Amino acid sequence: MKWLLLAFATLALPAHAYTAAELRRDCTAADDLFNAGNSPLAEGPTGPARCVGYVQGFVDGFAVGEYLADSVGVKLNAICPPDGPDATRRLVRAVMAHLDRQPPDTRATSASLVGGALSRAFPCSGSLEPRK
């Protein structure tokens, strides 16, 4: 019975979201590692790797959404991420540039900040019209 109460108590705790301040801190550290010629992922599951994972996960999630939209005849064309060996570095730098334009105490979610950064830095040239 005690374990059941403990299980319900832990479910009632608020979820910890990835805040804009944490995103800024982690991506700054990732950018510093990139500038030093190191991979943030080589550091293990630390803040810099969390930034890279979050940004890459966002891009991957968008790609899935774009694939699903395309399957019903809708072309999103909101983000066209870069290719190549420096793509991750370019993604992180785009997020950093966008974060630098935000107030330090922004209430925007990390997802909206990353989405805004990538859509501005890597826009697509195609139209948003559905396929015919």
Defining key terms:
single chain; 132 residues
How would you describe this protein?
This protein is mostly helical and 132 residues long. It has one domain (18-121). It is built from five helices and no strands. It has helices at 2-11, 20-35, 47-71, 87-100, 110-121. Helix 2 crosses helix 3 (47-71), helix 3 crosses helix 4 and helix 4 crosses helix 5. The relative contact order is 0.16.
Write the SSE topology.
Elements: H1 2-11, H2 20-35, H3 47-71, H4 87-100, H5 110-121
Helix pairs in contact: 2-3, 2-4, 3-4, 4-5
Structural class: mainly alpha
Largest sheet: none
**What would the principal axes of the Cα set say about the shape?**
globular
Element pattern in H and E? HHHHH
The helix content, as a percent range, equals: 55-70%
Number of helices: 5
Assembly type of the chains comes to: single chain
Radius of gyration: 18 Å
Per DSSP E runs of 2 or more residues, the count of β-strands stands at 0
The average pLDDT is 83
Q: Name the beta content range.
A: under 5%
The total number of structural domains is 1
How far is the N terminus from the C terminus?
A: 60 Å
